[in-house]
């Protein structure tokens, strides 16, 4: 085992520089094997799934993939190692020598000495077919198998890299990571889109109600982050959130991941917007650097033209318009909308799409929304009429709303009145307390993680960027 670790370490440090010789018989990931620059017969073991089998007169070619990279490792074997069980989709363990490949398509290949089929796969019954590039929509029927395709493999690796990049962005910027609860007794957004949580068997819990209060799956970690922002000036959370929205749309899920940040001593929306733009651009740069082949697959085969669209977003400064300006733009649009744009009415997807196009397909912040449209916690701008709050949404090409955020109402008396008007005073005493004891101006935002992935990769349907999508009438596996 120690040998394998040393080998891995040696190989990891050699992505561009010539690699020192690995030690014999090490277990190697496909990704690490492919990174070896100068292979000279090192004995290694590779485990994975067969992506192709090609038999020539005396030689057998296999491509083995283990999920560590888009590219598979070419295995070359004497035809006497061929067996009937060696089919597309089966799992294998291959031992042999890593050698320089005569082909220009890869640096190295594995000259097999032993091929063991670990698990059979009958190609007749296996719904995925060799060389197929089935549409993502078709693959959704097979949530238990679709991760074995190149497309889902790439999307899920990007998802994993983006997750790591988000954590590193916040860590590098000095934020403290908070695990906000999944079960909660508050409805942060007040939109009534809650899933209630109850024990499945009453018999095991004699009490009427397990928690003594109605409990729900969280719609947002914001209020818990706000608690923390009374002690830590910069906090973030990144976890699953749940909305019982009756929507089959291509940008809504019942369970999705949200990245949320809360910053104390922030006095302007512009300060928040800077962090939002910084997060989007830095995380995307990290993703492009860490898995360029996976991103390229999406940009080439799933969303042609997306590479240029993304570059356009990254090289321009994001724009800002007010909600009032947005409504004016929509009213003057030549396009007919299903929902007539009007001041005081929420923007619909069709409006968001139009606004982004109108702004030259550059992400655009829309700020200062009508007070009546927004939850109790958003800071009153004390303007008007018309009366607005310091809210901000970021609209992006292809997706529409990607971020939602605001300055929070940190002034005790303003908040007290807003809560009273909504009949929430009793339930939110603890929230008022935050304004009684060392209140500070603060603000924050949430970014839908799946929508972020859709936006950078150009994936049309949100169900294709999450491993196991949950939405109305569908909770498979
Ligand atoms: O705009 P929302 O509802 O904002 C909040 O929940 C705030 N409490 C966040 C905060 O300030 N801390 O949601 C934030 C983002 C949206 O902009 C959208 O990208 C995403 O979450 N989102 C969804 N993504 C997928 N499916 C859904 N049903 C979503 N609802 C919101
Ligand atoms: Mg929103």
UniProtKB/TrEMBL annotation:
<dbReference type="InterPro" id="IPR004522">
    <property type="entry name" value="Asn-tRNA-ligase"/>
</dbReference>
<dbReference type="InterPro" id="IPR006195">
    <property type="entry name" value="aa-tRNA-synth_II"/>
</dbReference>
<dbReference type="GO" id="GO:0005524">
    <property type="term" value="F:ATP binding"/>
</dbReference>
<dbReference type="InterPro" id="IPR004365">
    <property type="entry name" value="NA-bd_OB_tRNA"/>
</dbReference>
<dbReference type="InterPro" id="IPR002312">
    <property type="entry name" value="Asp/Asn-tRNA-synth_IIb"/>
</dbReference>
<comment type="function">
    <text>Mitochondrial aminoacyl-tRNA synthetase that catalyzes the specific attachment of the asparagine amino acid (aa) to the homologous transfer RNA (tRNA), further participating in protein synthesis. The reaction occurs in a two steps: asparagine is first activated by ATP to form Asn-AMP and then transferred to the acceptor end of tRNA(Asn).</text>
</comment>
<comment type="similarity">
    <text>Belongs to the class-II aminoacyl-tRNA synthetase family.</text>
</comment>
<dbReference type="GO" id="GO:0003676">
    <property type="term" value="F:nucleic acid binding"/>
</dbReference>
<feature type="domain" description="Aminoacyl-transfer RNA synthetases class-II family profile">
    <location>
        <begin position="156"/>
        <end position="467"/>
    </location>
</feature>
<dbReference type="GO" id="GO:0005759">
    <property type="term" value="C:mitochondrial matrix"/>
</dbReference>
<dbReference type="InterPro" id="IPR004364">
    <property type="entry name" value="Aa-tRNA-synt_II"/>
</dbReference>
<keyword id="KW-0547">Nucleotide-binding</keyword>
<keyword id="KW-0809">Transit peptide</keyword>
<keyword id="KW-0496">Mitochondrion</keyword>
<keyword id="KW-0030">Aminoacyl-tRNA synthetase</keyword>
<comment type="subunit">
    <text>Homodimer.</text>
</comment>
<keyword id="KW-0007">Acetylation</keyword>
<keyword id="KW-0648">Protein biosynthesis</keyword>
<keyword id="KW-0436">Ligase</keyword>
<protein>
    <recommendedName>
        <fullName>Asparaginyl-tRNA synthetase</fullName>
        <ecNumber>6.1.1.22</ecNumber>
    </recommendedName>
</protein>
<dbReference type="Pfam" id="PF01336">
    <property type="entry name" value="tRNA_anti-codon"/>
</dbReference>
<dbReference type="InterPro" id="IPR012340">
    <property type="entry name" value="NA-bd_OB-fold"/>
</dbReference>
<dbReference type="Pfam" id="PF00152">
    <property type="entry name" value="tRNA-synt_2"/>
</dbReference>
<keyword id="KW-0067">ATP-binding</keyword>
<dbReference type="GO" id="GO:0004816">
    <property type="term" value="F:asparagine-tRNA ligase activity"/>
</dbReference>
<dbReference type="InterPro" id="IPR045864">
    <property type="entry name" value="aa-tRNA-synth_II/BPL/LPL"/>
</dbReference>
<dbReference type="GO" id="GO:0006421">
    <property type="term" value="P:asparaginyl-tRNA aminoacylation"/>
</dbReference>
